[in-house]
Protein 1
Amino acid sequence: MVTLPQLARAGASLLFLLAILLHPLPVRAIGDVSYLPADDYSQRWSIAATLRTQVSPYEDESTHSDFIPLLTYSGETLFLAGTKGGIHLFRNDDWRANLYAGYRFAGYNDEDKEALTGMEREDSVDGGIDLTRVTALGDFTFDATSDISSNHNGQVLSFNWSRRYDHGAWTVLPWVGVSWYSQDYNQYYFGVEAKDALPDRPVYHADESTSLRVGSDVRYNIDGRQFLTFNIEYERLGNTVYDSPITDEQDIFKLGLNYRIQFEEENAERTAPDYDFLNGPGKPWFVRVAGGFGTEVTLNKIVRGDVEYDTTRPGLISVFMGRQLSDTFFGSNWEVWLKGGVARRFERGYQDDFFEYVAAFKFYYNNFPWSDSVLTRFGFAEGISYAEEIPYMEQVNLEEKNPTTSNLLNYLDVSIDASIGDMIDSEDYRHCFFGFSVHHRSGIFASADMFGPVNGGSNVNTLYVECLYQ
């Protein structure tokens, strides 16, 4: 039975997921990989993807590349931006301040790296505050973070200058910064404890360090809704990091390419001051309740009709809620929705039951030839899923071919449904739908650091009822 404390924890965890949407940079940084303008408070949602590559500081790894899927929101009060999300504390013409939390993907394991044999370091969740002074000479930002997950127990302080230059559809943002890393931080990620020492990897105590960083973002506004950003960065690591026996590079170069699509009503005024995603009129909300059981059939076979419904397998019950962002997508008949949900995983005695939390964009197509008679929708969702425990099906399916599994994975949902009201000839239920969906978690073929080196995933076949309301 689900207890009240468990429900409270589930609600808090879902809010945490929606507030942070943990998306990483490559090694050693909390940062903004969404490339949203710092002064954007337009209350628009976006979906984006970033490709990044960098020189790796660790031995046995010359370069490190990563694919980063992103959900972003530029709100009046709340924001989601790449690896961090939080609250705009205050802003005026001269000052900006934000309170945030972010996922720092600085951890590592010994996969394919002899220099790290037997070593493993966890990522962290860091809390931070930034303060920006806006001047005619540019923006001067002080940023301070501290580990709130009790992994490295360290702090990072940064001071940056940046200045924005606009020319038509182009925006260039050069910047220069200095970052200080505490002794606890450096010892955790670059030190070598006695238990990890080997003949060619002696004990090493890393002190605090300072890094010089310089770079630039170049953004192109394609059509007011699509944005392309190129990023280049150079970081000179401190000597205490470079002298570690597990590192062999001090000069770190990073390149990034980001593509972002902003969702909104296509004829909406993008600068309208009264736009309000939560309270604005006209857009419907939905609530969906689903339940089902796991399957070993792969996703590509399920969507081609190979569906099994084995009630003896672990399963889940989920509740989702969301709102429509746009009733058309670039002039097509695809609707765009934002949704978040909580699933209760039932593990059938293999392990304790637990909660899973999801945030995603959902696309619906309903312009079928028969939709005037029976409104039918095909749907596809893309987002992220965080499970409190590794589902048993993933432990079995993934651990055989991966060095580790991950609580945080990519989320997909493929669905087909039809109007209940049309099927039973009742106008009262025309905006309620009964359908089938696949609840899918995977690591995107081990291409994204944020999900770890996970190749593969798990599927749950579900039946659901979804109702729309204004």
Note: Residues 4-29 have pLDDT under 50 and may be disordered.
Protein 2
Amino acid sequence: MTAASDSDYTPAYTLDNTWEAARERLETLEVSCDPFTASHLDKVGVAPGWHCLEVGAGAGSVARMLCERVGPDGRVVAVDLEPTLLADLSLPNLEVRRLDVVVDELPEAAFDLIHTRLVLVHIPQRNELIPKLVRSLRPGGVLLLEECDLTKAMTADDGVFRPSFEAMYRPVLEAGLDIYWAPTMPGLVEAAGLVDIVELRELHTFTGGSPLAEFWRITYRQFLETQPYTDAERAIMEEGAAAIARPGGQYVSWEWITVWGRRP
């Protein structure tokens, strides 16, 4: 894989991994979501000897899972726009690379599995990227996409979290984030030529003070430090962050949509 050397493209990095609390934020997400990802990897049948590409590897928990499953005869390539949080991973079957999947080259027909988690919703070129990922699959290889649909969170009648959620996402929606995109994935992977397509939907809720509540509380903080908001929006976001920090309550986080398909 080689990086593009001459491009006017500048990636939108909404939630920078170099931010001071980025590791803490991603680790709370891992606690909440890794059991679902592990179950999906089991359903796909990731096996010893597989070559895998982990796109948007974050803090590395999925890369570690994959390394365990593929064993010493397999290989995992973990890529991220900013791989700072992967620096402490030292596994013999793991390669970490700084790479932008939108503009950088990917090898053709190289991987038995390509996986993303909460990555494509952040990329404006997400629809065009799926055929590129499919071309990097070996015949018989699997593309596994785990993304979230925030429709239910944006329509929940809780009076506190939803209004703060709306305020938080306003500037990044304007910048190209699509929090309602995930349900289109089955049609996109089918159009890209995959077969044996599976779609799973799981509603994720949380209570105040839980790991997922802490993920959102830290996310509020990062957005507040990096995005433009009005004073009224800031007040609403701070109110929402305070509410979910308190134990109790029931909030809708997202509908987790998982899609996978096989390259013929």
Note: Residues 2-11 have pLDDT under 50 and may be disordered.
